[in-house]
Amino acid sequence: MNFRKILSIAWIYRNSLIIVITPLLLLPLVGKSEVASCAFSLCIMAVYWTTEACPLAVTSLLPIILFPMLGIISADNISMMYTRQINFLFVGGLIMAVAIQEWNLHRRIALKVLMLIGSRPCWILLGLMVVTAMLSMWISNTATTAMMVPIASAVYDQMIKDDRDRNSGEALPSNRTNEDGVTVNVTNIPSTVRTLNDDKRKKSGDKNLRKAMLLCIAYSANIGGFATLIGTPANLLLPGALISVFGEGAAEQVDFVSWMGFSLPISVTCLFFTWIWLQFRFIGIRLRHCRQLWQKGDKQKDNRVKAYIFNSYRQLGPISFGEMAVFAHFVILAILWLTRDPKFISGWKDLFPQGRPSLIKDSTSAMLICFSLFVFPSKNPFRKSEDPSGLPVASPPLLGWKTLEKNFAWDVFFLLGAGFALARACEDSGLSDSVGDAISGLGDISPAGFALIISIILSLLTEFTSNVSTASIFLPILCRLASHSGIHPLYIAIPATISCSFAFSLPVATPPNAIAFSYGGLKVKDLISTGLVLNFICVLILNGFLNTTGVAIFNLNDVSSLSNLTNQL
C-alpha cells in the first residue's frame, strides 16, 4: 500500500481520526490540576469546533460530560448555563424570526424596499445590502442570506437579459461586390471588431456584477448581525461572559439599548464602506467602459428590473391580517426592548412596584411576545363568518408549535449554552486567571492599542471557525486579562465580540459566505482579495467608534466602573 493511498484512506476517515486522536494527544493534561483539566476540555472543543469533526451542536454538549467527570463543575451547575435568561432572550428572537419567515413577511419587506430604490447597478447593490442588513438584525444571518440570494440572482438575470437578446438578434455585416465579382465586407469590419471587444468587456462586467451582488448579501448579513444584541449568538456571549467572570450585576452594563446604541452606527458605517469597496472592486474604475454600455441601455434595463420586482411583489398578493399581526408583534417587541431601561429616562420596568424592576429583563419581553404569537388569531376575529350556519369559525394562531419544531435553530441554542458553560468553567477552574497572568505583559500596551490588536487577531481567526465558538473560547479569558491589566473589561470584550462577525474572506468562515459561494460565479480568490481589505476597514471603523462613542456609552475610562465590576466577584 503506497503512501498516497494511506493518505486517501486517512482523509476518508478524517473526522473519526480527529475525534479519537485529539483527546489522546491531550491526555497528559488530565489530573494535574483543575486548570489543566479545563484546558484539556477547552482544547478538545476548540479542535472539534474548528474542524467540524462532529456537528457543532453535538460538540456543544461536551461540557455536560467533561466538566463533571474532571471535577471542575457539577452537572447541575453546568446544565444551568444552557438555560440562562440570556438564552431565552435569544430564543425569543428565534421564535419571532420563525413567525416572520412563516408569513413570508421578510420577502415582502425586501421586495418593497427594492421597489423604492432605483434599478441602476449601484443602487441595486445598495438596496440589496440595506434590506439584508435590516433583516439580519432580527433574524438569523443564514436565513436572511438564503432568502436574499435567489432574489439577487433573479434581478441579475433581468439586468443582463436585454443584452443577451440584443446580441442574439444582431444582423450580419453588410457585404459589397467589386467589379471582379469578389464579395468583401467593407463597412462593418471595424465595427465588428469593436463589437467583439465590447462583448468581451461586457461579459467580464456581467461576471463582476454577479460577484458583487452575491458578496454584498453575504457581507451585509454578517455586518447587520452585530447591530443588535440578538442579531447573532456571539453578541449574547458577551453579557454571559461578564456574568461568569464578574457576577450577575455585570450584565447590566450591556443590554439591548446600550448595545444597539453603540453597534448600530458601526454597522451602518461598515455597510456604507462595504458598498463603496464593492463598487470600486467590481463595477467602478476597472469597468468604466462596461459602465458606459450600461448607461446606453438604461431605460430598457431599468424597466425590465422594475417590472420583475413589481411582479414578484404582486405575486405575494395583498397584505393579510396575519402578516399585519406578525409585523405588529415585531414592532411591539422592538419597542419593549428599547424602552425597558433607556438609561436617560425611566423605562416601563419602573412602572412595577419597588423591587420588581431589577427582576425584569429583556427576555421577559421576548417571552411575552412569543406567548402572544401562539394564541393571537391569524384571521380577523371580527370578520363576517363564511360558515353557512353563520357561526364564527375558529382561527389558527399566528404560529403553531409544529411549525416552530420544524424551523427552530436548536443547534444555535446549544452553541450559546456551550459558550456560557465554557466561560463558567474557565472562571471556576482558574484557567482565565492563569492565562491572564501568562500574557500579562500585554497590559503595558495602551487600552486602544490592546483593543486594536485583539480585533485584528479575532477577525482573522474567525475566518477558520464559527463566530460563536471563537467568542466562546476567548471572551472569558479576555475579560479576566483586561481586569488584571487595569483596563475596563468592555474595552477589550466589545471589540473582540464584534470582530468575530468580520468573517469576509473564506467560504467556510460563515454560512452566508458559503451560501453565496454555492450559487457559482465566485472563486475563493475573489473572497480573499475582497474580504481581507474589508476586514481591516471594518476593524479600523470599529476601533474608531470604540474610542469615541464607546467610551461615552460604556464609561470605558471610568476606573470606578471597573472597580464595581471586579467587586461583584
Description of the structure:
InterPro entries: SLC13A/DASS (IPR001898). It is found in: Membrane. The chain crosses the membrane at residues 6-27, 86-103, 123-156, 212-236, 256-278, 316-338, 445-478, 528-546. Belongs to the SLC13A/DASS transporter (TC 2.A.47) family. NADC subfamily. This protein has 569 residues and is mainly α. The chain has a domain at 159-167 and 191-298 and 430-569. It is built from 26 helices and 2 strands. It has helices at residues 3-12, 14-26, 34-51, 56-59, 62-69, 75-80, 85-102, 105-116, 121-136, 141-168, 189-225, 233-246, 256-283, 288-296, 298-315, 321-339, 362-375, 401-407, 410-429, 431-438, 447-461, 467-484, 489-499, 511-518, 524-554, 559-566; strands spanning 176-177, 183-184. The chain has a two-stranded antiparallel ribbon with strand order 1-2. A hairpin with a 5-residue loop joins strand 1 (176-177) and strand 2 (183-184). It is globular.
In short:
One of its GO terms (biological process) is transmembrane transport. This protein has 569 residues and is mainly alpha-helical.
Question: What is the string of helix and strand elements?
Answer: HHHHHHHHHHEEHHHHHHHHHHHHHHHH
Shape: globular
Structural class by secondary-structure content: mainly alpha
Number of helical elements: 26
**Arithmetic mean pLDDT:** 82
Layout of helices and strands:
Elements: H1 3-12, H2 14-26, H3 34-51, H4 56-59, H5 62-69, H6 75-80, H7 85-102, H8 105-116, H9 121-136, H10 141-168, E1 176-177, E2 183-184, H11 189-225, H12 233-246, H13 256-283, H14 288-296, H15 298-315, H16 321-339, H17 362-375, H18 401-407, H19 410-429, H20 431-438, H21 447-461, H22 467-484, H23 489-499, H24 511-518, H25 524-554, H26 559-566
Antiparallel strand pairs: 1-2
Helix pairs in contact: 2-3, 3-5, 3-19, 5-19, 7-17, 8-9, 8-15, 9-10, 9-11, 9-13, 10-11, 10-15, 10-24, 11-13, 11-14, 11-24, 12-19, 12-22, 12-23, 13-25, 16-17, 19-22, 20-22, 21-23, 21-25, 22-23, 23-25
